[in-house]
Amino acid sequence: FERWSGDVAFDPARPTATRATVTVQTASLRLSPSVATDRALGPGFLDAGRHPTIRLELSSLTPLGGERW
To answer: What burial class does residue 38 get, using C-beta atoms within 10 Å of its C-beta: 0-12 exposed, 13-18 middle, 19+ buried?
Structure first.
């Protein structure tokens, strides 16, 4: 994806307070070969025409031990 933005708030001392938002412009996907891009953006997969943005919202992290979350 060529066009995306994100905002992350992470404090290792308070992982359950972690917040993140990533927004992707669906049509900015680029694959090689380009025919794969066309298929991925089409109605059978991402359907970029109906869904111009993809948004991920993270509301917390769970510690798994060490530096793993």
So the answer is: exposed
Per the omega criterion (within 30 degrees of 0), is the bond before 63 cis? no
pTM value surpassing 0.85: no
Q: Return d(Cα 54, Cα 68) in angstroms, integer.
A: 26
For 1-69, where are the E strands, in sequence order?
Answer: 4-9, 19-25, 53-58
First to last CA, the chain: 25
What would the two tokens of residue 46 be? Answer: 């991402």
How high does pLDDT run on average in the chain?
A: 94
Q: Would you state the structure tokens that stand for residue 22, as one six-digit string?
A: 């990533």
